[in-house]
Amino acid sequence: MKAYQFIEEKEIKELETMARVYEHKKTGAKVLCLENKDDNKVFSIAFRTPAEDSTGVAHITEHSVLCGSKKFPLKDPFVELVKGSLKTFLNAMTYPDKTVYPVASQNDKDFQNLMDVYLDAVFHPNCLDNYRTFLQEGWHYTLDKEGRLCYSGVVYNEMRGAFSDPESVLERYTFHSLFPDTTYGNESGGDPEDIPKLTYDAFKAFHQRFYHPSNSFIILYGDMNMEEKLNWIDEAYLQEFERISPNSEIARQQPFGKMVEESQYYPISEKDSSENKAYLSYNFVLDAGQDAKKSMAFSYLDHALLSGPGAVLKQKLLEAGLGEDVFGGYSDGILQHYFSVISKNVSEERAGEFLQLIQDCFLDAAENGLDHKTILAAIHHDAFQYKEADYGSTPKGLVYSLNALDSWLYGGKPWLYLEAEALYKELMEEVDKGYFEKLLKEYFLNNPHSSLLSLLPKKGLTEQKEEKLSEELQARWQAFSPEEKEQIKKVKEELTLYQQTENTEEALKTLPVLSRKDIKREAESYSYQEESLGNRKLILVPGESKGVLYLRLQFHTDGLSEEELSYLSFLKTCLAYMDTENYRFQDFNSEIYLHTGGFSVDLTAYPDFVEKDRYTGVLALDFKLLQGELKNAVEYLEEMLFRTVYQEEKRLSEILLEAKSRERMRLEGSGHSYAVTRAMSAFSPSSHFQEQIKGIVYLHFLEELEEDFRKNPKALGEKLTALSKKIFSGERLLLAAGGDIGIFEKEKKELTDFLGRRFPEKEDWRETKFAGEKERREAFSTTSQVNYVASVGSFQGEAYPYTGSLKVLKVILSYDFLWKNIREQGNAYGAMCGFGRNGESFMVSYRDPNVQRTLEQYRKVAEYLENFKATELELNKYVIGAISELDMPKSAYTKFLLGLSCYLSKLTKEDLQRERDELLDVEEKDIRNLSAYIKRAFQEKALCAIGNKGELEKAKAAFESLEEI
């Protein structure tokens, strides 16, 4: 390859990959080829993008370059790709020091198209000449209904949402406290207070400096002709550029001479008590350079000290009453790694005690030794996961590419963090040699490059900030001349007109699109077999799993009251995290992870797609097992299910406080999910179940349970003991196995004996019938600056059968109507929808500045569909986008769970094939006919909005109630 200089190569045997590094001769672009037989190919281009302020220019640039380019002059080629590509991954990510643009596909033609669009987007974006893209994605002035001046913009509102979460605010302050003189001291995503300071000229200058081949890191992964791809990248893009010096090297923070101390504030509502509601955070830099062994070892110190079950530092902080929840740990992925210890809900006056206990614990562990079994268990667990390489829906090539950047971006070898087998073995041998204790002494004890942060509660802080901003903007509006005011109105009108203008047919044709003929017609099915084990039914889901057996014990929940379901959700949290008759819970977890591939507990509901007023609620216990480990799983199951000691009040208190804290954190981060579940719970059997176990009902349950526990701590242990006996019975048990069934057949005797001994009752597998409740229109206010607005309903009925065309409708609404009206014009960070086989339907917005406006847009969907028109090219894209979601590569474990789901939900191979045929054959009239489904489902009987009190107040006429959470 004449255009590239070969630098070096490395065979990574454990990944069956040949890694080769090149440099583009003309521009200096760095290239990494990871060649192997994986057909899920990945391409990514990354740029070092150090932030010099907190205006979010890196983040806004990431959004903006995907809004049209020289070769593909559409307004939003990213959306067109989502609609019309067989991508297995398509996104872009802004990090504190880099911006990454990755794509993946199993289809060769599609993969080439994705590479072309992304390379043209980053090197030739239209946003450099189109000011309106900057206004839309970054920030702009707008006038609200009362004529008051406001800020808006997609990134602006996204970051308002991020800065509403106290944990995210604390992370921002942590970076600033440890790295004040570097890029990490600024907010690359953008601080809402600083985003409006960004000018269009500064935005363009940022792109010119950093989005250049001389500052790029290109990675190709998978089964492809690497030479052909690299030559094309050179000829199509790189060769037109000259080498520059972007001066993008990430600066290293000079070590501190002593710890710094800082205090900041986060908002709480007026009804919340501020007593013992501080966050205390001790943070220190672990500057070990490019050392993969130490980096891995630090993660195991994190496990032993803070994040693992019964971690010693966490337990000591909890036992001392220094917080209701303790978290943090080791953070890598940047130039200088760091460690945080965070206590939540503690008095700020105890900061000195908090710091002293941490140092005492580090000293004691360094001198007297850590729990070596805990460290060995963590290493064994990670080694299993590394070999299994199951990253869910994320292509493993993307995981490896991002890992490569963790060293390559800073001048290290790109495979530094990819070769792990030898390190796992080496660290296992080092455990008993004092290696981890030496690291504690060298890096943890009395580290002067550290910070002690106090994040303090402040009532009404959100409202105070909003009022201050409003006053500043109104004063600015009054100071504007009449000409300036008219210009602001004109710019906003031009932006709105631009957003409402459709792409031209000519522009759409520039984007390469696959045809429906490129799509296989045969539906992927998830086969299962009904067998027996002893006198018990057994569901087998065989699959290629690299020698891993999946074992799942499921107990149905029929007959449990709503309150018992909430208690069961808490019991799930306790399993394996409380002492048993023979093990301390710390030791029990270590045993499990040393002698199995992993364990998890799941509490979920399977809808019945035939009798749609029914569902199957299950508490499931899952093991991943290698050959010879089934007997271990049986031993652990018996200990967990029948010998757990639920009466340990101190431990129960710890779990309860942490569960309440984590549920609140999930609500703040995933308000859209909570809003949909809450609104659907009145008519959806499975959502009603979910609301009791992880919704707003469950959050209230935990708050009340904490109060009751303080009054009568004995009662909770008694309740859990009684409930465990009720749920863990043979009548409720259904057994399933998947993956490598050969292991199961060879080793099933121990399991058969265990089942006969502990579950002699004949199974009585039952579904639960749900009568339904009155639908509700509810609003819940938090201290958030943004909103999550859900409208839900059901089209269930004989005249409205489920059809595969609804999968196409999901793509059309998500990436056309909702995208344009709620994201682009409404400036929400996102909007989505879904249509279930049982008729359950939803539309919901994410990090949305609006409530009333969003509800108004939902009302227009039926009319939009009645008048729906699409060219064959456009309809083709929607179909391919829907197929790409169906055909996403699935891991062996995911296929096991899907097979089980098909069995429990009565979904047949014929159903899946019919739906796929309907999807592939969809016509324009089929989409128009779905307007009747929308009218039936969305009648505004069931609404839920969670978010900013002020915005909810403005829209209160739409709701029956407004309650603070």
TrEMBL record:
SUPFAM superfamilies: LuxS/MPP-like metallohydrolase. SMART domains: M16C_associated. It comes from the Bacteria. GO terms for biological process: protein processing. GO terms for molecular function: metal ion binding; metalloendopeptidase activity. Pfam families: M16C_assoc (PF08367), Peptidase_M16 (PF00675), Peptidase_M16_C (PF05193), PreP_C (PF22516). Residues 455-705 form the Peptidase M16C associated domain. InterPro entries: Metalloenz_LuxS/M16, Pept_M16_N, Peptidase_M16_C, Peptidase_M16C_assoc, PreP_C. PANTHER family: PRESEQUENCE PROTEASE, PRESEQUENCE PROTEASE, MITOCHONDRIAL. This is Insulinase family protein.
